[in-house]
Amino acid sequence: MNHERWAAQDWRRAKELLQRGYSINAVATLMGRPPKQVSEKLRWENTSVEKREARRIKINARRHATGEYKSTPRPDGPATGPRADPGLFEERDRRLAAPRTIGQILMGDPPVGFSALDRKRQGIQEANWIDKRTAQLQRKPTLAGVV
Fold first, then answer.
1. Is the dihedral of CA 90, 96, 101, 107 positive or negative?
2. For the chain, where are the alpha helices, taking DSSP H only?
3. What is the residue extent of each domain of the chain?
4. Distance from first CA to last CA of the chain, Å, rounded?
5. With a threshold of 0.90, does the pTM exceed it?
6. Distance of CA 26 to CAs 15, 19, 89, 118, 140, Å?
7. Torsion angle, CA of 24/27/33/37, rounded to 10 degrees?
8. φ and ψ at residue 60, rounded to 5 degrees
9. Using alpha carbons only, how large is the chain's radius of gyration in Å?
10. What tens digit of pLDDT does each residue of 71-112 get?
């Protein structure tokens, strides 16, 4: 069932059509809603305020009992968890502050000193990983030798 909320102007129009003598099916067709939704909205609007409030209390009590609205209180203090190394922030700030050429900006090239080639020249060892796509394209050894 479509549980879309009724806009105030839609409900006013539906009430006006019902007062003119249109059937619930006709109003539902004109409003683009299922007939059951129109009849339930009409029933709800004709319910007394006390009964509406009692129903809301009953529904909310069930939701709290089942844990549907369960919330966990937040600790008063700051979050305790793993903290990032301050050196990482310094490196990030240095990288962002590095001057960049128009070519680097337009083409997305890394700043000077941060490309793979620059890191290789500095002697920084990159993690060894296998590019699966290029590994699939390489020749595979067989029993008869390299194919």
1. positive
2. 8-19, 24-31, 35-45, 49-66, 86-97, 102-107, 116-121, 132-137
3. 8-66
4. 62
5. no
6. 12, 13, 65, 74, 72
7. -30
8. -65, -35
9. 33
10. 665 566 666 667 778 888 888 888 788 788 888 888 888 777
